[in-house]
Amino acid sequence: MTGPNVQAGLRRAVWLLFLAAFACIFLVIGLRGHLDLSVRRLAFCALLSAGAFALRRFLPLVDRLSPGRWRAVFGGGLALLLVLQLGSGFLLLQDLTTSPFDTEAVLRTATELAQGTVPALYNDYFASVDTNVFCMFVLYWMYRPVYLLTGATAPAWAMGLNVLCLFIAAVCVCGAAGLLWVRRGKAAALVLCLIFLPYYIFTAFVYTDTMAAPLVAGSLWAFLALENRWGRLSRRARLLGCTGLGILVGAAFLMKGNALLLYPAFAVYLALRPGFWAGLRRALSSALAALLLFCLGSAAVIFGFNAYKWNCGLLDLSLYESMHTPATHWIMMGLENDGAFNNESFTYTGRYPTIEEKKAANLARIRTNLEHLLSSPQSLAWLFFTKAETDWADGLYTAPQMVNLAPVQRTWLHEWFCVDGTHAGLTADFGQAVYWLLWAGAFAAAVRGILNRRRTGDHGLFFCTICLLGNLAFLTLWEANARYPFCYSCCLLLFGAALLAAPRSEEQGTSHRV
């Protein structure tokens, strides 16, 4: 058990660690000369700062709108976002069954299964990289009725599902912001979602990163909703809510591995929440029941899907023992070269005939890598900051590189969103300026947390801080890739919403929150 003073000290320590770690990362990126502080990029930063200042002054006006007018304004903004995303998706449409990327295995297998063909081509792929199986089956479950009704498996259907995922992610961000800062939070989050370019550029890239985004954002929203309304909910509603949250987090983990970090994030947040331990003592049986149902909800989804995967007869997983790539492989890969994907590491793991032999070989190489890194602090620091730059420096999460994987037809929007487009530099500069604005909100919240200058909604931002720190720790060990933090972009968008919507002083009745 921890007393209030200890909890307060630990919360400050978390804020301090967050600020120190990420500020140091961006400082080193700058010292390496990789921030690209061009005049145009700085001009975008200035324009966005002026816009944020103006929006912060005018956001209180939404509180004066009648309920009907507010619903019309907010609903119209969401409708605009969806229309823009659909337009972007159709203009950037890809035939991912011809993509030179993992998306080919996922989409081709899903569409062939939907047509009643059990494909042999990618059985070895799914035996090797089974982390993408859930994504493939979700697409199969969509395409199967589409094929039965239309006789076709056009790529536009997958794009439409992907757009829906990104749109739901934005809705969840707005919902969470509404819990923290009511109408102002919803309005601020909606504005940020409208200018958050990855929500448009990723529309045609149908993969685990985008399809996990609504599950992670939805888990965050659901958790904050339960935490915010716990005292007003009936016992039955609490238990149902915890079960639903468990199902949501379990699905997120199946879709993207780093969603697993939500589990320890919940635990750390609750352990440091003021009043948690006292409340736990008062209602231990109720808390244990809620925890049990949360775990059962997750277990039902995870084990239920795995049982379906092995027994549905749609994939031949007989090669699993010889082909499966264990988790130790990705840690090994993350501890050598520049920490990103490399074929040599993949070939090394693949040459061993069984899972246990692969694990043993990976662990031996991990030990060798660690011995080298720990004996050379300079090499260790170089690897850490190189991986951190890969993971955290790109405000567009490598979305422009994904745009030109397999375009059905190159359109005028490709010139803006494609990595080799005529106006790609302009898009990158604006996207990076928005990204820095979101990080400015994160650093401002961290400073407030360290100084104990609390504002309404800071308890939600504290949870976001834990999630981002967890991702930093995870990606420090794992393979480096700028797409991997994308499903947690909801946390950064909430920091940006706080910058625009959070009141300057703590409101009555919220002093118990982080």
UniProtKB/TrEMBL annotation:
The organism named in the record is Allofournierella massiliensis
User: What lineage is this protein's organism placed in?
Assistant: Bacteria, Bacillati, Bacillota, Clostridia, Eubacteriales
Keyword annotations for this protein, in alphabetical order, are: Membrane, Transmembrane, Transmembrane helix
The source's superkingdom equals Bacteria
Membrane-spanning segments: 12-30, 42-59, 71-93, 125-143, 155-180, 212-230, 237-255, 261-280, 287-308, 433-451, 460-477, 483-502
Q: What name does UniProt use for this protein?
A: Dolichyl-phosphate-mannose-protein mannosyltransferase
